[in-house]
Amino acid sequence: MMGRNPGEPHRSATSLELLFDLCFVVAVAQASTSLREALTEGDYTGGGLRFALVFFTIWWAWMNFTWFASAYDPDDVPYRLTVLVQITGSLVLAAGVRRAFEDGDLYVITLGYVVLRTALAALWLRAALSDPARRSTTLRFAVGVSVCQLGWVGLLLVPVPARLPGIVVMILAEVAVPVCAQSAGMTPWHPHHIAERYELFTLIVLGESVAAATVAVRSAFDRRHDTGSLYVLAAGGLLMAYAMWWLYFARPAHTLLATTHRSHRRRFPWAYGRYLIFASGDRRGRRSGRVRRSRHASYRDLTGFRRRRGHRSGGRFPDHGLDGAPAATPTERGRAHSVSPRRGRCPGGRLVAGTRARRRCGADEPGRGGHGAAPVTGAGRPALTHDERAARTDAGKGVRPRGPASRPSV
């Protein structure tokens, strides 16, 4: 596996590299979705830090393979199989993104990352055996990547409160490996190929942003929000995506890499600085795609009434529930519009919102005084089940209940 010619004409991304990018789209989408959910729950600091870490693992694994493939790409059977192993690792990493966001569980995402990077270390060892002229550089890459993977695995054994400093140390170690390795000699990477690969990843991030904004606007249309504001929101999101594309592709990157950015002092800031561009582009899409939950859905799920024509009786709601308790008052019904359906009551009586907050205080454990996983209304009462909502709707319409189990108490 000898090095490629850095001056090879018409060098472009291969179909295997495009498949590699396609599978990384899944990981990027998972990170974006988890960030949106964290922001919706109000966890701005924790969600932002988790997104920065998760996106770093995605971007770093992608970037290291991109630079290796630009320098060494024999496109033979062993190389293809090793790359497919890396693709499998990227899918495992994507599967662990939600666990990392919701519970701080890094086991699955670390497993996927270690599979990715270990397969790349094997490719660097193969390059060291096949390219004597650059053996020192390739061996440094192989050893450095392998040692870092041992560090990530050992980090799982560290207590959770002490993991953040360890994560910072491991990120610095990962970033230092290419700098240390290429100080012994530069690999034969192709400027035009590297520029094209970064441009493709930029399009992935922008596409994720456009998709997030499109889904949000479509959901808002379905929920009958203000049409004028939606038009303004959609136009603003599209203009921002267009502007980001225009600015990024305004100056050809391959020209810089082939001339002024071939030295280490300029090449590494260019390559590493793209992390901020990719992460901010992906985060911008998810922030612009945030739309509040449907007001009608919150009303139905939290109060037990359907806000549709024909479901009132004489212009008034039923005055009793299934258990004889009073129906939701106008104040409670109004409050239900702004209450998240993921609220729960702690054993001490305090209402909390969000999955993680409910788990910490035991709101999801009936044995500890919580309501289980069921949401609560604006007044703190558990939300009605489907059968209870149907019975209450029948009572409001003056329809005789269909069974003793759904007959309201007097």
What does this structure look like?
This protein is mostly helical. The chain has 15 helices and 2 strands. It has 3 domains: 13-189, no CATH class; 192-292, no CATH class; 295-406, no CATH class. It has helices at 15-40, 44-71, 77-95, 97-102, 107-130, 135-155, 163-182, 191-222, 227-248, 253-258, 264-288, 295-303, 330-336, 355-361, 386-397, and strands at residues 343-345, 351-353. α1 (15-40) packs across α8 and α2 crosses α11 (264-288). The chain is globular and about 85 Å long. It starts with 14 loop residues before the first helix and ends in a 13-residue tail after the last helix. Mean pLDDT is 74; it is low at 287-328, 330-342, 366-380 and 404-410.
Blueprint of the fold:
Layout: H1 15-40, H2 44-71, H3 77-95, H4 97-102, H5 107-130, H6 135-155, H7 163-182, H8 191-222, H9 227-248, H10 253-258, H11 264-288, H12 295-303, H13 330-336, E1 343-345, E2 351-353, H14 355-361, H15 386-397
Antiparallel strand pairs: 1-2
Kindly report the average pLDDT value: 74
In order across it, which strands form the biggest sheet?
1-2
Record field, number of beta strands: 2
Number of domains: 3
Radius of gyration: 27 Å
User: Distance between termini?
Assistant: 83 Å
Largest sheet: 2 strands, antiparallel
- Give the DSSP E fraction (strand runs of 2 or more residues): under 5%
Helix content: 55-70%
Low-confidence stretches: 287-328, 330-342, 366-380, 404-410
Form type: globular
Q: Structural class, judged by helices and strands?
A: mainly alpha
Number of helices: 15
Topology as H/E string? HHHHHHHHHHHHHEEHH
